[in-house]
Specification:
CATH class: Mainly Alpha
Radius of gyration: 22 Å
CATH topology: Growth Hormone, Chain: A
Shape: globular
Number of domains: 1
Largest sheet: none
Helix content: over 70%
Oligomer: single chain
CATH superfamily: MFS general substrate transporter like domains
Order of helices and strands: HHHHHHHHHHHHHHHHHHH
């Protein structure tokens, strides 16, 4: 049996428009979400009380984690909406939430003006943004996964990740401009509000995905038949389809991998730039912007390669290269003599670090349609909440004991989990290919 393959030339106008709208929407969401993250070195001083360096580090970690700790709750909420109301409605709701939180931060008084209330409000806004991204990023990935077929499916879904990186890169660029030229930081959040509103309006043009619409139709038919014979509904395959526990665990391990690399590349190395080379917040933002540009172009290359090379093979090659780097990383960090060496380390992590891209559609297709949104969002949310809390708070203390070897303390367990997950999905792919013929 030979499966139909979908190429770029065979995509309908409607599908191309959907990919474009979702890609642009993801760019807008990540721009808004990461705007505060990359301006945290400046904004934390405005919204949080001034204190000693250790406490300041904990407050900075708290500000960073605030958008992640309640993501699992957001995942359950938007997972339910996505699996019951539909993919389209969910991504519109999340974009609207993002615009409202960005609008609030654009008008929020500072700590000097209203005291600790400013810290509370900005934390709530970060939590709302974090919850909103649950329906956004997974909704866009699932929408395109269910809309297209391989091999175009892999670069199309990877394009969502690329536009997410682009959103973060532009957020860094805006942060760099604001801090370098003394512009009003509020103007950046006004821009974020505007682009989020545009994204929400544009997504009203989307239609529901074929997989979800077809599954809904089959359930409706089963319910109609069940009125005459209720046992037909309980025996329906789509109604009783369950999530394999090993697959759910493997997906969680995959989702845990990139946050570790992101934190080390942008936050941990950024802190090294401040402590070793006495970089100003503006200089850290500028160097992170350069690293983000490198990451953006590398992911574009990965998107292209996924069209001609199976995504799981790409992950395996990248895994081997990054493992070699991890072993040498403590030595390199202990012997850095210039910020350019730090940049090289940041760039390597951003390009070759553990991540699920471009194999995301492969992971999602092994989840049942009516549980796909919930499990995908919850795995994504739980992984971010767990990893960012452990790394941002844990490294404040672990770095004191282990120094640069803290990289191995965190990366070795991450690598072990990633290898287990990759092998699991490789087995599933082989089994599905065997059943297809």
């Amino acid at each position: 049996m030979i499966h139909d393959k979908e190429t770029l030339s065979s995509l309908s106008k409607e599908k191309r428009e959907a990919i474009g709208l979702l890609s642009i929407g993801t760019f807008l969401e990540y721009f808004d979400l990461l705007l505060y993250v990359h301006m945290a070195v400046l904004l934390n001083e405005l919204f949080f009380p001034k204190t000693d360096p250790h406490t300041a580090g904990l407050l900075s970690a708290f500000a960073f984690c605030s958008s992640y700790i309640l993501r699992p709750l957001g995942a359950l909420i938007f997972g339910y909406l996505g699996d019951n109301i539909g993919r389209k409605s969910t991504v519109i709701i999340t974009t609207t939430m993002m615009s409202l939180s960005c609008f609030t931060m654009a008008n929020l008084p500072t700590y000097e003006q209203i005291g600790i209330t400013a810290a509370y409000i900005v934390t709530v806004c970060r939590i709302v943004q974090g919850m909103a991204t649950m329906g956004e990023v997974i909704g866009a990935d699932l929408y395109i996964t269910e809309l297209t077929k391989p091999p175009i499916q892999y670069p199309a879904v990877t394009l969502i990740a690329v536009f997410g990186v682009l959103g973060g890169t532009v957020a860094l660029g805006v942060a760099s401009l604001v801090t370098s030229f003394g512009l009003n930081w509020r103007s950046a959040f006004w821009l974020g509000t505007l682009v989020a509103v545009i994204g929400a309006v544009a997504r009203t043009r989307l239609r529901e995905t074929p997989d979800f619409a077809d599954a809904k139709r089959r359930i409706k038919q089963a319910v109609i038949k069940a009125k005459h014979n209720p046992e037909l509904l309980t025996r329906s395959a789509i109604w009783n389809e369950k999530v394999d526990k090993k697959t759910a665990l493997a997906l969680f391990f995959i989702e845990c991998s990139w946050p570790v690399c992101f934190y080390f590349a942008y936050m941990y190395c950024g802190n090294m730039l401040k402590t070793i080379f006495h970089f100003t917040p503006e200089a850290v933002i500028h160097q992170n912007f350069t690293v983000s540009m490198i990451q953006l172009f590398s992911w574009l290359i990965v998107a292209y390669l996924s069209y001609v090379i199976h995504p799981l093979k790409i992950l395996r090659v990248r895994l081997v290269l990054f493992l070699c780097f991890v072993v040498l990383c403590p030595y390199m960090l202990n012997n850095v003599t210039s910020p350019y060496q730090i940049m090289a380390i940041q760039a390597f992590i951003a390009v070759f670090g553990f991540m699920g891209t471009p194999a995301v559609p492969i992971f999602y297709k092994h989840l049942p349609v009516f549980k796909r949104f919930t499990y995908a969002t919850f795995s994504y949310a739980l992984s971010r909440a767990f990893v960012y809390v452990v790394t941002s708070f844990g490294l404040v203390y672990l770095d004191v004991f282990f120094g640069s070897y803290v990289v191995l303390v965190v990366m070795i367990p991450t690598a072990t989990a990633f290898i287990y997950a990759l092998r699991h999905f490789e087995k599933l792919e082989k089994a599905s290919a065997h059943h297809a013929y």
